[in-house]
Amino acid sequence: MADTPGPRRIRVLLVDDHQVVRRGLRTFLEVQEDIEVVGEAADGEEGVARAGELRPDVILMDVKMPGTDGIEALRRLRELADPARVLVVTSFTELRTVVPALRAGAAGYVHKDIDPDALAGAIRSVHAGHVLLQPEVAEALLAAQDDQPSARRPGALTDREREVLGLIADGRSNREIARALVLSEKTVKTHVSNILMKLDLSDRTQAALWAVRHGLAD
C-alpha cells in the first residue's frame, strides 16, 4: 500500500546580503518539518529573479541591501503573478523604514534578534495570510496613528464595515471576507475603500492596526 503523502511544506526563499545570516537562517529552518528553504539571494534584484523562478510561498527579506534594496524588491515582487508573502527580517525598526516596507507589500516585519522558534511561527502565520508585526513595531505604528489629529472613532463605521474591518485585522483576503459574510468581492472592495476613507488610512495594514487599537479585532 502506497504511503500517504504528508502536508505540503512551506517553500521559503532567503534574501539577505550577508552570507552568514543566510546560512544561519537556512541551518535553523531546515530542521523544521513543515518548512523547506528552496533558494537564496544576496540582494533585491536577485531576490525578485529567484522568486520568479522558484515560486516560493514566503520570502524572508532584509530591507537594507546594496543595489536593489528590500523596499524596491517588494514593489517589484507585487508585479509577479501570485506573488509570495514577504516577511521582512531586519535590524532596522524605525518608522521611516517600517512604513515604506508595509506600504510596498510586506506581510510581516520582525527584528533579526527574534527568537528562532518565534521566527518559524512568524513564517507559518504569514503563510496563513496574517499580518504579523513584532510588538515594538506594532506599538510604534499605533503610536504614530494616534498622533494623527484626523483619526476617527469606531462609531464612524457602519455595522457591516466594522465586521469587514475585524476580518481585515484577522488577515483575511477580500475573497475570504466575501465568503465569510456571504457578499460579492466587489461589495467587499467597496467596504474596504469606505473604511480607509472614513478612518483616513492608506492601506490594509494600517486598518488592521487601527482595529486592534480600537478593540475591533478578535
Description:
With about 220 residues, the chain is an alpha/beta fold. Helix content is about 50%, strand content about 15%. The protein contains 10 helices and 6 strands. The chain has a 6-stranded parallel sheet with strand order 2-1-3-4-5-6, with helices on both faces. α1 links the parallel β1 and β2. It is globular. About 35% of the residues are buried. The model has no long low-confidence stretch (mean pLDDT about 85).
Task: Break the fold down into its secondary structure elements and pairings.
Blueprint: E1 10-15, H1 19-29, E2 35-41, H2 44-54, E3 58-61, H3 70-77, E4 85-90, H4 95-103, E5 108-111, H5 116-127, E6 132-133, H6 135-146, H7 159-169, H8 174-181, H9 185-199, H10 204-213
Parallel strand pairs: 1-2, 1-3, 3-4, 4-5, 5-6
- Quote the beta fraction: 5-15%
The total strand number stands at: 6
Helix count? 10
Outline the low-pLDDT stretches: none
Average pLDDT figure: 84
- Termini separation: 44 Å
What is the N-to-C order of secondary-structure elements (H for helix, E for strand)? EHEHEHEHEHEHHHHH
Rg over alpha carbons:
18 Å
**Strands in their spatial order, largest beta sheet:** 2-1-3-4-5-6
Helical content band? 40-55%
* Main sheet attributes: strand count, strand direction, barrel closure: 6 strands, parallel
The secondary-structure class comes to alpha/beta
